From TrEMBL:
It comes from Sinosuthora webbiana. The lineage of its organism: Eukaryota, Metazoa, Chordata, Craniata, Vertebrata. Signal peptide: none annotated. Transmembrane segments: none annotated. It is found in: Secreted. GO terms for cellular component: extracellular region; plasma membrane. Keywords: Disulfide bond, Receptor, Repeat, Secreted, Signal. This is Interleukin-22 receptor subunit alpha-2. Its main location: secreted. Residues 6-96 form the Fibronectin type-III domain.
Length: 214
């Protein structure tokens, strides 16, 4: 019995955490500290905070992976959720490891916008597209993150003559197409953008650079 108890403790999953980007939500954990724990299988359950019964996540029942997709299970984005994971090895089950409470609307990370640029001889036109959630409208298109939050686009220009790291904010607002004027012909400019949420004072990461020479 003692050996079983030791095995139970040594295969128990560690660091059970929700990771979420644009409401694409996965549960991650690390294997127990025993060397043989790498051969363990894992079982995932979840529930809304306040519910008494745990739900099994069928696709993550007896898996060898250390990640489980709970996007569908956490789609009520204002609700707080919990998840828990246990391990099994050689017929022995660990106790459950519990995640922290996770509320998608508060805790998902908002990704950067998509940026495309076109230029004329003295101006750059920037097209912006907000990141999209995994959730769909009835007609089948995915719902942009701007439906869930009051988000602004922030657009920055980098003049490669001056300094690679020097980003100048040239626009903040909700327009999806903007024009940056009075630029110098023959100069290489790069555009980056991010999403900004004034209410929580959160910013996304920067988009990838889109560069052009006028």
């Amino acid at each position: 019995v003692l050996e079983n108890q030791d095995l139970q403790d040594s295969i128990k999953p560690q660091k059970v955490e929700f990771h979420s980007l644009n409401f694409n939500t996965t549960l991650h954990w690390q294997p127990g500290w025993a060397r043989e724990a790498r051969d363990a299988l894992y079982f995932v359950q979840y529930k809304v905070y306040g519910q008494s019964t745990w739900q099994n996540k069928d696709e993550c029942w007896g898996i060898s992976s250390h990640v489980c997709d709970l996007t569908h299970e956490t789609s009520d984005i204002q609700e707080p959720y919990y998840s828990r994971v246990r391990a099994a090895l050689a017929g022995v089950y660990s106790s459950w490891s519990l995640s922290c409470r996770f509320t998608p609307w508060r805790e998902t990370v908002i990704g950067p916008p998509m940026v495309t640029v076109a230029h004329s001889n003295k101006s750059i036109t920037v097209k912006l597209q907000a990141p999209r959630s995994p959730y769909k409208r009835k007609r089948g298109s995915t719902i942009p993150m701007t439906n869930y939050y009051d988000l602004l686009y922030q657009v920055f220009i980098i003049n490669n003559l001056l300094d690679e790291q020097h980003r100048v904010l040239v626009y903040e607002g909700k327009e999806k197409v903007i024009e940056i004027q009075d630029l110098r012909p023959g100069v290489s400019y790069c555009i980056v953008a991010k999403m900004y949420m004034p209410m929580l004072d959160h910013s996304s990461a920067y988009s990838s650079r889109q560069c052009t020479v006028l």
